[in-house]
Every structure is written in structure tokens, then in C-alpha cells.
């Protein structure tokens, strides 16, 4: 009997044996695994959702049906979760200009891929929480590249003091901000979440210093009243540089305002319809050679001003006790450190030369959710590539060679709230 029993056991097929092993393994239901992952951290949740199609579907259903994410260390994305940034390029073909928008995908830690974005037209003006504000001729559009949806905003030229696309001076003094609501906000729009678009115009002359701003609400589907607020403590008669891209923190939008007599940070409280002007210290560098960019040292924190010359990047911060700007900056990173990273990452560092080598650091954009700054480094006007600087660690995280890239005219970050990102796991741009 024992011999026959043993022979019967040995006669089992390989498929039956494998089935038996699977049945003896301890396993948890997928719903329970999702509940556990929702209480870990962003990186773990994304890795969990990336394991298989069934798990990805369960994570989508979890958030779609109102499941709450209780993630640790979720105030900022870890860098591998940063989707990347959008580059606007153009070239001329068949006697006609061809504009393109590409995503520099940085989800992989060891690779950077450039992909063409379809379904988004125009020049990118701002981005927030997965939505992108673009300008197409004389109209503004809010697009969701992941879902391929868009919403065209109505014209406001009858109430705003300048046209959306006016003279070169008007464009220099006009800027835009995009504020996107949280995913648990009530209501939905053609592009998903509720949003606000702020159009700001600085009227600056010897006898007139006013800030005009108007807000489009997706909830009401219309532009609000045009606000005109006098700012007498902003000195100067003309701008040295265009207002540039706004830094959005909560429901406030900040712009760096450099006039011919002083440097300021312009702050608009969107909901309260108020304007605040903060003057930068006299020691702030005013040379046109410096590149400046607004950022935050922590998610939702106070603005800081980054400046870059050919030697280093510095950060000008405010005192926590007084709120006044400090007279001296903190060195964030030196150019030599960036070049060492380039060499160790396999890039081609310029060889030593008997002639002076002049480097230029361009601060292109800041991604508030991940706390990273996109930098472009040039050597004697020749580009060396794009670099991502993490402000908290003050280290370069990765780089991308832009050789062969079409002429780039605009760069904006592209990241999403984790709950908004999960439904797009199986989507491609």
C-alpha cells in the first residue's frame, strides 16, 4: 500500500504539482493589499499599482469610489514619481512654422525619454496638478494631456485693459497663473477638476503703478470682474525683464518683478482679491547676467528667490521671525559640482583649454510638488544639457542631453497629485 501510494504521488503531472504549490502559499485579497498600500508612502503605492493589471484596476477603483489615501511623507513627490516637464519647440518646414509640445519623461530613475504630446495645442503658459494652460493665437485653453481633454476659455478682451496677445510691452507685463482644485472638490469640468485661471497685468509708468487681474472660474464658466489695485510702494517706471511664470502656493500667485529702480515679489491673493508687494534687499544682484526664479524650500512654504551666475546658484530667503528678506543668500550648488555630476553620469565635460571657459546657468522652471528646479547649462553658448536640482537635498538628481533637440522656447513642469495620477497609469501621452 505504501509503495502504491508513493507511486501514485510520483505520477502527478507537473501542472498539478504547480497548482498544489500555489494553493499552499499564503495570499491576501487584492482589496486588502490596496488598503495596506494606501497607508504607506507614494513610492510604495505606485510600485504596488505597477505590479499587474489587476492591481492597477483595484487601485483605480479604490480612488474612484472615494477611498482616502493616508500616505506618509506625501507632502512632496519623491523624484522618481515626477512625470517630467513639457518643452515647447518649433522648426520651419515647407515654408511654415511647425510647433510641437513634448514631454521629457523622468519617471524612470535611469533613463529620460522625450515623447511628443498629442491633443495639446499652443504655447504652454502654466501648469498645475496635471492640467496645462496654453495660448493659441488669441485664445486660452486648459488641457489635460493624460486624458486628451481640453476646455477653451471665453474671451475677456472687453473687460481687461489689454488684449490677450497685444504689443511686445503688453506681453512683457502680462502673465498667467493656473490654480487647480483638489480631487475631492465638488463638481467636475470638461478637464476633470475645478480650476481658476488668473490673468495679471502690471501697469507701470512714472505716474501710474497699478495691478490689474481677472480670474476665470471653471465652476461659473466665466471671467470675474477686472480688479484694479494701486501699488504705490512698487517703485520704477518700467520692467527690466518680463514678469515670467507665476509661482502658485495655495490660493496665492507670486511673480518676480524687476523694475529699473528696485526688485520686488508681487503677490496676488486670488480669493481675497488683494495684492501684496515685498521689496527684495538692496544686496540682491541687479545685473542682467543673473538668472532669477521663484521657488519654495518646502511644499506650500514661503517663496524664495533663486539666482544663478556662471559660478553658482544661490537662494534668497525670508526670516521666519520677521518675514523680511535676508541680506545674504545661501549657496545652493556650485557649477563645478554640476560638471562633476555630468562627468560621473557619462556626459561629456568640456576638456581643459588655455582660453577662458565661461559657463551659464539658466533657471528654467520650478516644480513645487517635487521641489525640483530645471536648469540648463551652457558652455560658451553651447548647451551641455538639462539638469534636475532637488532643493531639499541641494543635489543634482539626473540630466538629459538636449543635443539634436528642436529650438526650445518654453519649459514648464508637469506633475500631478497622486490621487489624480493613478487613473492615468495605463494611459499614454
From TrEMBL:
SUPFAM superfamilies, sorted: F-box domain
Domain DUF7595: 207-395
Gene it is expressed from: LOC123404609
Biased composition (Low complexity): 9-18
Pfam families linked: DUF7595
Superkingdom to which the source organism belongs: Eukaryota
Protein name: DUF7595 domain-containing protein
Organism in which the protein naturally occurs: Hordeum vulgare subsp. vulgare
Sequence segments annotated as region (Disordered): 1-23
Amino acid at each position: 500500500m505504501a509503495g502504491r501510494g508513493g507511486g501514485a504521488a510520483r505520477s502527478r503531472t507537473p501542472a498539478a504539482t504547480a497548482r498544489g504549490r500555489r494553493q499552499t502559499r499564503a495570499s491576501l485579497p487584492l482589496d486588502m493589499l490596496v488598503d495596506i498600500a494606501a497607508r504607506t508612502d507614494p513610492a510604495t503605492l505606485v510600485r504596488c499599482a505597477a505590479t499587474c493589471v489587476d492591481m492597477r484596476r483595484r487601485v483605480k477603483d479604490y480612488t474612484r469610489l472615494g477611498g482616502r489615501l493616508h500616505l506618509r511623507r506625501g507632502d512632496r513627490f519623491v523624484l522618481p514619481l515626477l512625470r517630467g516637464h513639457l518643452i515647447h519647440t518649433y522648426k520651419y518646414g515647407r515654408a511654415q512654422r511647425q510647433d510641437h509640445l513634448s514631454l521629457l519623461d523622468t519617471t524612470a530613475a535611469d533613463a529620460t525619454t522625450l515623447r511628443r504630446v498629442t491633443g495639446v495645442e499652443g504655447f504652454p503658459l502654466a501648469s498645475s496638478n496635471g492640467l496645462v494652460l496654453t495660448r493659441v493665437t488669441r485664445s486660452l485653453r486648459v488641457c489635460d494631456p493624460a486624458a486628451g481633454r481640453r476646455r477653451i476659455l471665453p474671451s475677456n478682451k472687453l473687460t481687461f485693459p489689454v488684449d490677450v496677445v497685444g504689443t511686445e510691452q503688453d506681453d512683457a507685463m502680462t502673465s498667467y497663473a493656473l490654480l487647480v482644485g483638489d480631487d475631492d472638490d465638488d463638481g467636475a469640468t470638461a478637464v476633470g477638476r475645478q480650476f481658476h485661471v488668473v490673468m495679471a497685468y502690471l501697469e507701470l509708468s512714472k505716474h501710474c503703478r497699478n495691478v490689474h487681474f481677472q480670474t476665470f472660474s471653471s465652476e461659473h464658466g466665466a471671467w470675474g470682474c477686472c480688479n484694479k489695485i494701486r501699488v504705490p510702494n512698487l517703485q520704477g517706471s518700467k520692467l527690466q525683464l518680463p514678469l515670467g511664470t507665476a509661482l502658485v502656493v495655495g490660493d496665492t500667485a507670486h511673480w518676480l518683478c524687476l523694475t529699473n529702480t528696485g526688485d520686488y515679489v508681487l503677490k496676488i491673493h486670488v480669493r481675497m482679491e488683494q495684492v501684496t508687494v515685498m521689496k527684495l534687499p538692496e544686496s540682491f544682484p541687479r545685473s542682467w547676467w543673473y538668472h532669477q526664479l521663484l521657488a519654495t524650500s518646502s511644499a506650500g512654504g514661503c517663496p524664495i528667490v533663486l539666482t544663478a551666475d556662471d559660478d553658482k546658484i544661490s537662494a534668497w530667503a525670508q526670516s521666519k521671525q520677521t518675514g523680511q528678506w535676508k541680506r545674504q543668500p545661501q549657496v545652493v550648488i556650485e557649477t563645478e559640482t554640476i560638471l562633476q555630476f555630468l562627468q560621473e553620469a557619462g556626459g561629456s565635460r568640456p576638456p581643459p583649454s588655455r582660453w577662458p571657459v565661461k559657463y551659464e546657468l539658466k533657471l528654467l522652471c520650478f516644480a513645487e510638488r517635487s521641489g525640483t528646479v530645471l536648469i540648463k547649462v551652457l558652455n560658451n553658448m553651447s548647451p551641455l544639457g538639462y539638469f534636475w536640482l532637488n532643493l531639499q537635498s541641494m543635489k543634482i538628481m539626473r540630466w538629459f542631453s538636449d543635443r539634436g533637440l528642436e529650438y526650445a522656447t518654453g519649459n514648464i513642469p508637469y506633475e500631478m497629485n497622486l490621487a489624480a495620477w493613478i487613473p492615468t497609469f495605463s494611459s499614454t501621452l
